[in-house]
Amino acid sequence: xxxxxxxxxxxxxxxxxxxxxxxxxxxxxxxxxxxxxxxxxxxxxxxxxxxxxxxxx
Length: 57
Description:
This protein has helices at residues 2-7, 14-31, 40-56. It is mostly helical.
């Protein structure tokens, strides 16, 4: 990889590099957002279903 960079005569300026880094960071934040939690009552119902399913086996 270093060899590829050493032979590259076209470079980007600091401002362009910063813009690219910011854009990548924003996309990563959007992609890696935690999934929203279910309302408590729905979570309780799902837990009850899981418990009943385990009890039935």
